[in-house]
């Protein structure tokens, strides 16, 4: 009897820490002690492991087994340590060999089956970055683990297959006689998952030329957008088609997005990088934890992080809790959410495009002269009071969407498709990224005031309208910069070298159209 070792990974947010699983078999009465700050689900691994090993044909030692998860000061959670613990225990008993340099990531069923776990992609990324190259996962996680280039991944259906590859005696493996196939599972056995938001075309939106233009500008520059208009004016249709105007994610962005969504997938897993920008549309009754992130123990990502590099759409925005809306202010500025809880701190990226839609009042009839509106002035103020000034100040485009006319709805004139608009958006983004690469930026929406008033400063005759608006208090300093960002995007869409007075005027109009709500 001696010491056995195996490797696992503990995830804290998206950050993975390689855990050394030590197993020692003593010469005292039977017992199974698990050390290293395990949570409840991990503490239950003792019974799962005993049953799985017994049903595989290589029961654990009847002596005292002590398992230590190093570093012991880091909290561990989840069932993804099961396979590493049983392999370390079997290694200590001499039943298997060569486990010390392999990272094991799988949950065990009582019958010895290997079950998939969440977060395999960020776990493999972390271990690979730490210098580890060999990984063992459940069959359902094979495609996801193989997304890390250079990682040598083996996948199995059951514990018997794993221990057989680590030099266990085949005569002891009763599970193989019970019908399990031996060997690893090929990658082509796993099916891919389809992209969401497919088939939604901008050509389906009737009328609304100004709103369509605003949507194109938002897509080209990565700008946040607020649309206010009566029910049925097309606000939701426009928002749903924004992802179709955005270009595919590059390799770095796709890896970030896929790693976040890996924390949410379990049974089917992910087998390819998510190349399309994600789209999240939480219900207005959603809690702060569900949108920002949270939960018991180590906080989990919310809708804002799942929308990273994509779109977060808040339909009926004034119906959301004010605390939820104000909590979005920090990620809108920093592109990151840092969640502090008693069990630990987790950081998740959250660089998304915020799209909000709202009715003009609770009843939705305060359009035109508003003679049919049933809301009191106090009800209107209370309705939009949930959208705080600091939040709206971070939204570049604030658009009034007018009611559709019958002539617009019945028009048979051809409308531009998403593919046509996406072509212009891609060209404008390429122009912007080439101009901004010297500062390490990609989108005009990321421009800082220092750059806008320094290297990209416009002449006074071009910004006269802006200067007047700020002088009269219509625009804040943040709003001034955001109008300039919009103006650069308008110029990029036209292929201009720099924005002119007309471009600044259009940007200011898009910024002020929703003022006074």
Judging by the overall fold, what is the CATH architecture of the largest domain?
3-Layer(aba) Sandwich
Mean pLDDT: 87
Coarse shape:
elongated
Helix amount, in percent?
A: 25-40%
Report the CATH C-level class of the largest domain.
Alpha Beta
Report the total helices. 22
**Count of the separate structural domains:** 2
Going by CATH, the homologous superfamily of the largest domain would be P-loop containing nucleotide triphosphate hydrolases
How is the CATH topology of the largest domain named? Rossmann fold
- Side by side, the strands of the main sheet go 11-14-17-10-18
Structural class: alpha/beta
Largest sheet: 5 strands, parallel
Give me the Rg, rounded: 28 Å
How far apart are the first and last residues' alpha carbons, in Å?
75 Å
Counting DSSP E segments of at least 2 residues, the number of strands comes to: 18
Work out the strand percent: 15-25%
Low-confidence stretches: 181-196
């Amino acid at each position: 009897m001696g010491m056995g070792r195996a490797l696992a990974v503990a995830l804290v947010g998206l950050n993975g820490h390689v855990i050394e699983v030590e197993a020692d078999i003593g010469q005292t009465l039977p017992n199974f002690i698990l050390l290293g700050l395990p949570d409840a689900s991990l503490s239950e691994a003792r019974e799962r492991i005993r049953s799985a090993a017994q049903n595989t044909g290589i029961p654990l030692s009847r002596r005292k087994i002590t398992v230590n998860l190093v570093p012991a000061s880091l909290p561990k959670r989840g069932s993804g340590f099961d396979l590493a613990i049983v392999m370390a225990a079997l290694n200590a008993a001499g039943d298997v060999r060569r486990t010390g340099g392999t990272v094991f990531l799988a949950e065990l069923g009582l019958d010895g089956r290997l079950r998939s776990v969440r977060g395999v992609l960020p776990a493999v990324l972390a271990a690979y970055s730490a210098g580890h190259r060999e990984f063992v996962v459940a069959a359902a996680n094979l495609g996801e683990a193989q997304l890390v280039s250079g990682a040598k991944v083996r996948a199995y259906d059951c514990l018997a297959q794993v221990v057989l590859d680590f030099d266990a005696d085949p005569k002891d493996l009763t599970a193989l006689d019970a019908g399990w196939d031996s060997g690893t599972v090929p990658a082509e056995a796993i099916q891919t998952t389809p992209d969401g938001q497919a088939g939604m075309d901008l050509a389906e939106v009737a009328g609304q030329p100004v709103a369509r233009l605003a949507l194109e500008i938002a897509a080209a520059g990565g700008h946040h957008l607020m649309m206010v208009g009566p029910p049925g004016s097309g606000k939701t249709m426009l928002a749903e088609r924004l992802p179709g105007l955005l270009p595919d994610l590059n390799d770095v962005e796709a890896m970030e997005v896929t790693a976040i969504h890996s924390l949410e997938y379990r049974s089917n897993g992910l087998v390819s990088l998510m190349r399309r920008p994600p789209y999240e549309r939480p219900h207005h009754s959603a809690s702060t934890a569900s949108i920002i992130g949270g939960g018991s123990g180590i906080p989990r990502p919310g809708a804002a992080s799942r929308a990273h590099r994509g779109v977060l759409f808040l339909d009926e925005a004034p119906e959301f809790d004010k605390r939820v809306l104000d909590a979005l202010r920090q990620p809108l500025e920093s592109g990151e959410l840092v969640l502090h809880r008693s069990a630990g701190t987790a950081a998740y990226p959250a660089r998304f495009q915020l799209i909000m839609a709202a009715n003009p009042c609770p009843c939705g009839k305060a359009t035109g002269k508003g003679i049919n509106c049933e809301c009191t002035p106090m009800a209107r103020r209370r309705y939009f009071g949930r959208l705080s000034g600091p939040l709206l100040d971070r939204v570049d485009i604030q658009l009034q969407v007018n009611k559709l006319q019958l002539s617009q709805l019945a028009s048979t004139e051809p409308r531009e498709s998403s593919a046509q608009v996406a072509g212009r958006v891609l060209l404008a983004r390429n122009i912007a990224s080439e101009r901004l690469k010297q500062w390490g930026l990609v989108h005009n929406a990321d421009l800082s005031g220092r750059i806008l008033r320094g290297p990209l400063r416009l002449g006074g005759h071009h910004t006269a309208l802006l200067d007047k608006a700020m002088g009269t208090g219509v625009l804040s300093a943040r709003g001034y910069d955001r109008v300039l960002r919009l103006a650069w995007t308008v110029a990029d869409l036209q292929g201009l070298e720099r924005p002119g007075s007309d471009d600044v005027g259009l940007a200011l109009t898009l910024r002020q159209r929703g003022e006074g709500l």
